[in-house]
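Take a look at the protein record below with the fold in mind.
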Amino acid sequence: MTRSLGTSDLYEAKARAHAELTQIDRVSAQARVRLDLNRASLTAKRISTMGDEQRQVATEFWVR
């Protein structure tokens, strides 16, 4: 995956890189959760064992 930080200034690039890496990590985590949900069996699972983000993704998956 390649992202442009939109600057040639080293200091500005370092400042923007942190935010960009955070967003990439968030998108990757969501993709992993979706992949896990797609691999999940049809057996009911306890929602209390899921984190808030996992519950949100599961809800979005089943509502669509």
